[in-house]
Amino acid sequence: MSPQSTPPSTPHFGRMLQHQQQDKPEDDINVEYLKNVLLRFMENKDRRQQLVPVISQMLRLTPDETKRLSRGA
């Protein structure tokens, strides 16, 4: 199984995102990776707070939007 389909931890997400940003234009988002992160967020309540910074960075959320996401987690 690929790292994108089974993300183990937040630091891993950060490294994957950083690598993707180096390889692609600023506005491109790996949709498959984003989909997997969001599915993990929705499926696993225990890991939601770990995923908030990842989702925030991928979607370029403002600090207020990140707080809203965190409260909902």
Automatic annotation (TrEMBL):
Protein known as: GRIP domain-containing protein
Cellular component, GO, one term: Golgi apparatus
A matching Pfam family: GRIP
Membrane topology summary: Peripheral membrane protein
Record-annotated GRIP domain positions: 24-72
Presence of the UniProt keyword Protein transport in the record: no
Region (Disordered): 1-28
PANTHER family in alphabetical order: GRIP AND COILED-COIL DOMAIN-CONTAINING PROTEIN 1 (PTHR23157:SF25)
UniProt cross-references to InterPro entries, sorted A to Z: Golgi-autophagy_related (IPR051952), GRIP_dom (IPR000237)
Biased composition (Pro residues): 1-10
Location in the cell: Cytoplasm; Endomembrane system
Keywords: Coiled coil, Cytoplasm, Membrane
